Amino acid sequence: MRADRKIQNRAIQRFVKNNTRKNKERNVILVIAVVLVTILMTVMFGAGISIFHNFQLANLRNAGTKANGGLYMATEKEMEQISALDEVEATGKQQFVGEVLDVKDMPSQTIISMTAYDKTEWENFIKPTVSDITGNYPRQESEVMLSRWTLEKLGVDDPQIGMTISVKYKLLSGEEKQQEFTLSGYYTDFIYETGVTPNSGNTMAANLYFINRSMSKRAAGNMIVSSRFAEEHGKEEGGLGTFLIDDRLNAEEALALLDHAAGNDEIFVSGLSGTAAQALMGAMIPILAVIFVMISGYLLIYNIINISVLQEMHMYGQLKALGATSKQLKKIVRKQVNLVAAVGIILGLLFGTAFAVITVPKFLEALMDSQNGKFKFGITVSPLIYVFTVLFAYVTVWFSARKGTRLAGKVSPTEALKYVDVVHKIKGHKGSSGGKLYRMAYRNVFRSRKRALVAFASLFFGLLIYLTVSSSTQKLDYNLKYDREMPYDFVMEDISWQLGNEEKAEKSLDDGILEKVKNLEGVDKIETD
Question: pTM of the full predicted structure?
Answer without folding.
Answer: 0.65
